[in-house]
Design a protein that fits this description.
With 151 residues, the chain is mainly β. It has 2 helices and 11 strands. It is 12% helix and 34% strand. The model has no long low-confidence stretch (mean pLDDT 92).
Length: 151
């Protein structure tokens, strides 16, 4: 991956909720699940996983939308843009919607998930594809490989 910034900024659609991320993501993903398709009104969602202490979120308090369970999807309370997701299964990571960042074009997805739900005409240049989510035991290996692919 080239061009990833040491510090990147971004915002929701209306600009009221802003993001600042420091360092590089630990992994980038595209999710093809039906839920992501519906929440993005697109064929998939794009994610960049960052350590929580590397993400600064300012502006009005985001509201929970989408699923109201283990995955907590956070949205701007004004424009309702999906900004990030937190979940216990991520541990100390925060799943930032890559397209909220100013340099989203640099965040090419490394892994695609839920390919059994993928729209048949979608092709993404990822290194790894999973029919559902990767098993948790695969994440350390995937993150290590991802870290080696970055400049």
């Amino acid at each position: 991956m080239t061009g990833i910034k040491d510090v990147d900024q971004g915002s929701c659609r209306c600009g009221q909720v802003t993001l600042k991320v420091r360092g590089r993501p630990v992994m980038t993903l595209a999710c093809h699940c039906k839920g992501c398709q519906k929440m993005t009104a697109s064929a998939f969602s794009l994610s960049a996983l960052y350590p929580q202490d590397c993400v600064e979120i300012t502006g009005p308090e985001p509201v929970i939308g989408g699923m109201h369970g283990e995955l907590r999807h956070h949205f701007c309370p004004h424009c309702l843009s999906w900004v990030f997701t937190r979940a216990e299964l991520f541990g100390p990571l925060i799943n930032v919607r890559a397209t909220m960042l100013d340099h989203a074009a640099d965040l090419v997805p490394f892994v695609e998930t839920c390919t059994t739900e993928k729209l048949p005409w979608v092709t993404i240049p990822t290194r790894h594809s999973y029919p559902q989510f990767p098993p948790m035991e695969d994440f350390p290996k995937l993150m290590a490989e991802f870290s080696e692919t970055r400049n």
